[in-house]
Write a structure and sequence with these properties.
Layout lengths: L4 E6 L2 H9 L8 E4 L8 E4 L1 H4 L9 H7 L4 E3 L3 H16 L4 E6 L2 E5 L1 H4 L2 H19 L3 E6 L2 H10 L5 E4 L2 H8 L12 H9 L5 H6 L1 H8 L1 H10 L17 E12 L2 H21 L2 E12 L4 E11 L2 H12 L7 E9 L2 E2 L22 H12 L7 H6 L2 H14 L1
Parallel strand pairs: 2-4, 7-8
Antiparallel strand pairs: 1-6, 1-7, 2-3, 5-6, 9-12, 10-11, 10-12, 10-13
Helix pairs in contact: 4-6, 11-12, 13-14, 13-17
């Protein structure tokens, strides 16, 4: 094997953490995400809930219809991030390169450390054992010759599974008669396009290579390669500074018609975006605004700027973009920055906001927060970091919405 890659994937991560911390939840259909009656989706669910047809990404109303007797809880992202940091520390210790693709998932290049398939098998078992012993959680692990095959392998025996795919032939033999969605990058929309021309399985892709490429272009070329087990991608450690954009969004529990409230929410979103950019030493040269209307129609607006170094600048540009869109009920609002590059000078820490102002006549950050605090009787001093780092933002926004609506 030219390279030996391990893919580690936690089993129902958020739900498993909650069941670990509250044993009374074990063996029950636990759904983490929005609560019944709220807007939102399922973040993840226990395997008991999956027996009812509940799955990640499902609208919470559909989940409740399928599983009205389930236990529904909001996610605790701060807790999950802390657990994730410990998980990745364990996994990284076995690899020459580690590519985290989610809080609960990573690719590990163990070519040098393992030396052989047998060596990789020992590493995989050590990872599973340490994950269970040190954190009380189970994971599924795949060992393979490529990233695509390793991810397929980790999914093969879930939960608490282990599977190997040593060669491209083994990979093809395993998936050839499966639905095209087994192939990396083939999601629901791509699968539907392929289905319209009669391509439903991996075998169909192989037998209609030119048709797939005509239909999907470069993505079609990639898909046909994967159908033959070809994937030479390397494990590339993720670096936050390589991100193309930074954004944050909020979904309202009831549609918002008051654009003054939307402006107020943009203030908090701007500080959240600034906080993340500052931690990674980045600044943007473009600002985006994202809206989803009540009818689910989504729009994105953007504008290039010379530099966007702080919350006040982000807010100013996003607010200007909001002033240009159609005024009708809004379900979701978000904002962000793009064209990222290294920081030009240190950003203000959030606790310094109360002592520093944005330059040359623009809206001062302190004034933004003071005005917001006065309108909604909020105290941001000492709490803004928490709002930026967790789902507290959504709770604060909901409080603002209810207070504004009277």
């Amino acid at each position: 094997m030219d390279q030996i890659i391990i893919h580690v994937d936690m089993d129902a991560f958020y739900a498993s953490v909650e069941m670990r911390d509250d044993p009374s939840l074990r063996g029950k259909p636990l759904i983490i995400g929005s609560l019944p009656g709220e807007r939102g989706v399922v973040a993840t669910c226990s395997y008991e809930a999956r027996k009812y047809g509940v799955r990640s990404g499902m609208n919470i109303k559909d989940a409740y219809r399928l599983c009205p007797g389930g236990i529904y809880r909001h996610p605790d992202f701060d807790k999950y991030k802390a657990v994730s940091a410990r998980l990745h520390k364990i996994w990284d210790s076995y690899a020459s390169a580690s590519e985290a693709v989610a809080l609960d998932e990573a690719y590990l290049d163990v070519t040098r450390q393992a030396g052989s398939l047998e060596g990789a098998r020992k590493i995989a078992q050590a990872i599973k054992q340490r994950t269970r012993e040190e954190l009380g959680l189970s994971c599924s692990v795949g060992v393979a010759y490529s990233k695509t095959a390793a991810k397929t392998a980790s999914e093969e025996k879930k939960p608490d599974g282990y599977f190997e795919i040593p060669t491209a032939k083994d990979f093809v033999d395993l998936i050839i008669d499966r639905d095209v969605r087994v192939l990396y990058t083939v999601g629901e929309m791509t699968a539907e396009k392929l289905h319209t021309v009669g391509i439903r399985t991996v075998r169909d892709v192989r037998e209609n290579r030119e048709a797939v490429i005509r239909l999907l272009g470069k993505q079609g070329q990639w898909i046909t390669q994967i159908a033959y087990g070809i994937d030479a991608r390397k494990v590339v450690p993720y670096r936050p500074q390589d991100a193309k954009s930074i954004s944050r969004e909020v979904t309202f529990q009831k549609d918002v018609e008051d654009f003054d409230l939307l402006l107020d929410v943009l203030v908090l979103i701007a500080f959240c975006v600034e906080d993340r950019a500052r931690r990674y030493g980045l600044h943007g040269k473009g600002v985006t605004l994202k809206l989803t209307y009540a009818d689910m129609k989504g729009i994105t607006r953007s504008r290039a700027v010379s530099s966007c170094d702080g919350a006040a600048a982000i807010y100013k540009e996003a607010a200007a973009l909001l002033g240009q869109v159609e005024r009708r009920p809004v379900r979701l609002i978000g904002a962000g920055i793009y064209n990222l590059s290294g920081e030009e000078g240190r950003q203000l820490r959030l606790e310094e906001v109360f002592e520093a102002a944005f330059d040359d006549g623009a809206v001062k950050e302190k004034e933004l927060l003071d005005d917001l605090a006065k309108r909604y009787q909020l105290d941001f001093a000492g709490h803004l970091e928490q709002i930026c780092h967790s789902d507290t933002l959504h709770r604060v926004v909901e409080y603002m919405r209810k207070r504004k609506s009277g």
